[in-house]
Every structure is written in C-alpha cells, then in structure tokens.
Amino acid sequence: MKKSDVIEFYARLAADNPHPETELKAGNPFQLVVAVALSAQATDIGVNKATRALFEEVKTPEQMVALGEAGLKQHIKTIGLFNTKAKNVIALSEKLIADFGGEVPADRDALETLPGVGRKTANVVMNVAFGAETFAVDTHIFRVGNRTGLARGKTPLAVELKLDKATPAPFRLHAHHWLILHGRYVCKARKPECWRCIVADLCAYKPKTPAPPSRANAA
DNA sequence: CTCCCGATAT
DNA sequence: ATATCAGGAG
C-alpha cells in the first residue's frame, strides 16, 4: 500500500474511533495477562463471561495459586483449550511470584518467559498495561493486514515487523486496536462487510461484497 | 507440523 | 456440519 494511502487508512479508522480500547476486561496488569492468555482461540465475550466471577476473587498471583488448577478449571471450563490454559495460568502465577516479586514485568522478553505467554500476548500486555507502541498480531490483524495490503506476511511475526515499519508516528500507539476492531466487526473472516467499510477504496481485497445482504425484494 | 478445545455464527 | 475465535508449546 502506498504511504499516502496508509496514512489515509489510519486517519479514517482514527476519526471513526478516537479512543479504541481492549474489550477484554481486567482490573490490573496481572488480570490482563491472565485474560489475554485465556483468549487464545476464544472470543473476548466468552473470556469476559468466565473471568467476571474469577476476577472478583482473584486479583493477584498469590490468590491464583491459592485457587489452584482444579479451582481455576471450574471457572474457565467454558473456554476452549481450558486444560492447558489452566495449567499455564497457575504456572505463570507461580513464576511471577518466584522471579518477578509478584509483579508483571514491563518488558516483552521477560513476559515471553511466562508459561502460556508468547509474543502476541506479550505485545498486548506491553501496549495495554504499559503504553508501549507494540503491534500484537492476532488472527484479526493477520487477516486485515494481508487482505488490505497494509502489511503482508506469511507469519504473524512477519506482519508485525511490516506494521512496525509502515505505521507513522501519530498512529503507532493505537494501531493495533484500530486494526483488531476493524477485523472483528467489519473485515470479518467469513463475510467481510465491505459495503460499509470506510477504507474499502484503499483496500486490495478484490471479491468485495458489493451490497448488503439482499433484503427481500423491495416493494 | 500437530495438538490443545468449548461456544457461537453461518 | 463446519469455520472461527485477541495462540502457544512440543
């Protein structure tokens, strides 16, 4: 995508949503790490539903360890991959206590040493909890980047590095939320709603659905 | 590369 | 019935 189009692309998303935020609910950095770790291959809505009760009683790594793996499973059994997630979250909590004084480190490499935390989760935490200009490439951003031509790559890391190069200063902090929200609600995986997309004219995606789903023939 | 895995939309 | 959902680890 041309540099001028990239600027226009972001400018429109920014005008449409000046203050984009995470839809994952968390009261502190620890809860954020847990919520994002739980969100792999699951919807934000599903994660929030499970963490509502969980986060009322668990606000620290110590409380998570006290709850235990079996107790945690009871809270998150409605989320996919819950067995490995429960194990990871307990282990992650223990490691925060043992190696980081019970605090969430404001460092991507340190975050990535936590069980169940990879580059994408670490990037989310750095951006949301610590205000870092990171580009957390999840399934939505990977799709939007490749589809639109904004940032193409065969792997999430490749797309992340391209976004880092292509994204101008004024948009770097919120780029990841603009892109994820656009992917979630407009540039959907199955049925992208191009007819109401505000950046459709800048997009490389060809099989655009030209019009909204056919309402029954109008009178 | 495979496995992990429930809820929801299509 | 199947694709998809804020991925990560072996």
UniProtKB/TrEMBL annotation:
Its cofactor is [4Fe-4S] cluster. Keywords: 4Fe-4S, DNA damage, DNA repair, DNA-binding, Endonuclease, Glycosidase, Hydrolase, Iron, Iron-sulfur, Lyase, Metal-binding, Nuclease. GO terms for molecular function: 4 iron, 4 sulfur cluster binding; class I DNA-(apurinic or apyrimidinic site) endonuclease activity; DNA binding; DNA N-glycosylase activity; metal ion binding. Its EC number is 4.2.99.18. It catalyses: 2'-deoxyribonucleotide-(2'-deoxyribose 5'-phosphate)-2'-deoxyribonucleotide-DNA = a 3'-end 2'-deoxyribonucleotide-(2,3-dehydro-2,3-deoxyribose 5'-phosphate)-DNA + a 5'-end 5'-phospho-2'-deoxyribonucleoside-DNA + H(+). The keyword Transmembrane does not apply. It holds the Pfam family EndIII_4Fe-2S. It comes from the Bacteria. Signal peptide: none annotated. InterPro entries: DNA_glycosylase, Endonuclease-III-like_CS2, Endonuclease3_FeS-loop_motif, HhH-GPD_domain, HhH_base_excis_C, HhH_motif, Nth. The keyword Membrane does not apply. GO terms for biological process: base-excision repair, AP site formation. Binds 1 [4Fe-4S] cluster. SMART domains: ENDO3c, FES. [4Fe-4S] cluster binds at residues 187, 194, 197, 203. Residues 38-185 form the HhH-GPD domain. DNA repair enzyme that has both DNA N-glycosylase activity and AP-lyase activity. The DNA N-glycosylase activity releases various damaged pyrimidines from DNA by cleaving the N-glycosidic bond, leaving an AP (apurinic/apyrimidinic) site. The AP-lyase activity cleaves the phosphodiester bond 3' to the AP site by a beta-elimination, leaving a 3'-terminal unsaturated sugar and a product with a terminal 5'-phosphate. NCBIfam families: nth. PANTHER family: A/G-SPECIFIC ADENINE GLYCOSYLASE/ENDONUCLEASE III, ENDONUCLEASE III. Belongs to the Nth/MutY family. HAMAP family: Nth. This is Endonuclease III. It comes from Sphingomonas populi.
